[in-house]
Amino acid sequence: MSNPSAGMIPVSGIGYDVHRFIEGRPLILGGVEIPSPRGLDGHSDADVLCHAIADAILGAVGELDIGHHFPNTDPAYRGISSLELLRRVSEIVRNRGGRLLHIDSSLIAEAPKVGPHVPAMRQHLAEVLGLPLARIGIKATTNERMGFVGREEGIAALAVASVLVPDEVPSEM
Ligand code: MG
């Protein structure tokens, strides 16, 4: 029986993102629109959680960050769903012969309460990344009223990704 992990090694990547609150935009986190008087500012849908996850995945496979792949100066990405960006990131992993194993993440927000929406976010991420629900972690915490998150100026997100990649040094490195 062939082992699909033969010749593959596990690697990991880290991602961080932050977006500021702005009036007049919906709040989208993990692909879910969350009831909120304000949304996040950004060129795309400003889904800070998806962006942190995208950077974690890209970092794991030795790629440059999300801003390089989907520049905020490109009108093609104006208002784009960040779930679509994540779908494209998972394509990059497949094109490199990699296999995404696991995602973990934390949302850091003082308000609104995001906990009740986490199951729906995990569902979206599972679909777009092709992972079982059990391999997608999303935690939510506040910043204990300290700093820019504590003053409700914006939302931050952290993520890590684990990926199996071919055990070879890519030629461009
Ligand atoms: Mg971002």
State the gist of this model.
Helices cover 27% and strands 31% of the residues. By secondary structure, the chain is of the alpha+beta class.
What does this structure look like?
By secondary structure, the protein is an alpha+beta fold. 27% of the residues lie in helices and 31% in strands. It has 5 helices and 7 strands, in the order E-E-E-E-H-H-H-E-H-E-H-E. Strand 2 (27-29) and strand 3 (32-34) form a beta hairpin. The protein is globular. Bound molecules: magnesium ion. The site of magnesium ion has 5 residues, from strand 1 and helix 1.
Highlighted features:
173 residues, alpha+beta, 60s Ribosomal Protein L30, Chain: A, five-stranded mixed sheet, two-stranded antiparallel sheet, 5 helices, 7 strands, 27% helix, binds magnesium ion
CATH-defined architecture = 2-Layer Sandwich
Shape, principal axes of CA atoms:
globular
Secondary-structure-based class equals alpha+beta
Top-tier CATH class: Alpha Beta
Question: What's the number of extended β-strand segments?
Answer: 7
Query: What small-molecule ligands were found?
Result: magnesium ion
Q: How would you spell out the order of helices and strands?
A: EEEEHHHEHEHE
Residues in helices, as a percent range? 25-40%
Query: Radius of gyration over alpha carbons?
Result: 16 Å
Fraction in beta strands = 25-35%
Beginning-to-end CA distance, first to last residue = 33 Å
CATH domain topology: 60s Ribosomal Protein L30, Chain: A
Considering the protein shown, what is the CATH homologous superfamily? 2-C-methyl-D-erythritol 2,4-cyclodiphosphate synthase
Number of helical elements: 5
Biggest sheet strand order reads 4-1-7-5-6
Low-confidence segments, ≥5 residues, pLDDT <50? none
* Total number of distinct structural domains: 1
